[in-house]
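just leaving the lab so this will be short. what follows is a protein written twice so to speak, once as letters and once as structure tokens for the fold. can you read through it and tell me how you think this chain folds. anything you notice is useful, everything is just below:
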Amino acid sequence: MVSSSGIGMFWDNVLFGSRMANPLYQNGIFCWQSIPLDANPGHPPFLATIIALGWTLFGKSLYVSHWMMFPFIFGLLWQISNLVNHFIKDKFYHIFTFILVIADSTLLSQLVLVTPEIIQLFFFFLALNAILNEQLYLKIIALAFLGMVSYRGMMLCGGLFLIDFFIHLVIKKRSLKQFFSFQTSIAYCIAALPAIVYLYWSLSTRGWIISHPSENWGKALAFSSIEEFIKNFGRNILVLGLQFVDFGRITVIVFVLITLIIKRTYIQWEKVLTLLIIIFFSTIVIYSTSLLIKNTMGHRYYLPSYLSIGLLACILINQYNIKKTVYIGLLSSLLLGNCIVYPDTFAQGWDSSLAHLPYWKLRKNAIEYMDNHNIPITETASFFPNNTTIDNVDVNGDMRSFRIFSGNENYIFYSNVYNLTDSEFTTLRSTYDILETFKKGGVRIEILQKKDTGTLNTTMPLSPSFIK
């Protein structure tokens, strides 16, 4: 927690965290109707409420925001350990399996951010463990809270229902009538009630649920023709495949696939089939939706599947005599995945690995440079997720705001952690000069000035490039 306390709100968490939390902090932590339309994606403001509560009790700061995540981080790791224990009883092997599962690059990145992802994963694995251990009341509670974290939490509830259904039929070999008993039906109805109440409240008070009236985040299904939809569908399949093998996961997935084929006659299929059901159905509602819409969903959306694949890989390692070598290879692949940085013109899930860590110190240095050289932040454009107030990122009371890039601004604050469109990148390189570069590892920040605005007006000489 201490080491990550300087990491600001990043990616969608600027919206789900500080932008939604500020009106709740000012007007009351449960005054959800106070969230303005331009900062309201329609999701239940679960994370924002948690953050606003922390600010109210302990003071508004980035440090407090991170500490409010700690109970959910601890709870998530605890539930992952319980899941591992369900499949692996040996205590020594349990530890190494747990390490491999949590070594996923995307999970490690989420653990250092202020994000609803950790909260969602905690309730997901709490519900999953309750299903595997047939703990009815705990399942109801976990599903009820999961459905209130976000719309995606509701989608994960759908995946958990299917996991429960297929484990009941395929693994436990019980009847369909037993699954749809009065007890099970009532349990799922009660679990769904908080989400249904929220959706009703949202619709009755705002007049919309999912489709934002201002279309701030675009139209998910705005296809001009069947041909465009089919082309987009094919592209989304490729993107989804890349997301599953990205950041070192390719080694784990290839290992699992090869082992399932060549060792199929030696495998304890009950455990394997249970995990395959979890892997496939946990995020089925999410990836099915992602394939149909214009913009695919992010890497982190599939974390329940990623972590289950890691657990399956550890179970399959027992099929080999060279267990240590295989284990070290898989673990190294996942950890080295944090070092992957793609070219600027290739969109990267920067919140899905630890590659973004150098950005935060470089960003601080770049802002200090701008202040020292009289470059007004209010006249400087930047890109998502930095085109907002400094306070929304750093929670430090600095209300100066970067502009949304239009190509007309005199100054640009650019980093390769921002995913630009091809046209934006072309404009940047053709009409702006680089004044200063800040670089560390694979992360780079550039301060640029428009070519036709003359020389930079400063009260002090330009410093050498900051190469950290």
Remarks:
- The chain is about 55% helix and 5% strand.
- Residues 28 and 52 are 8 Å apart (CA to CA).
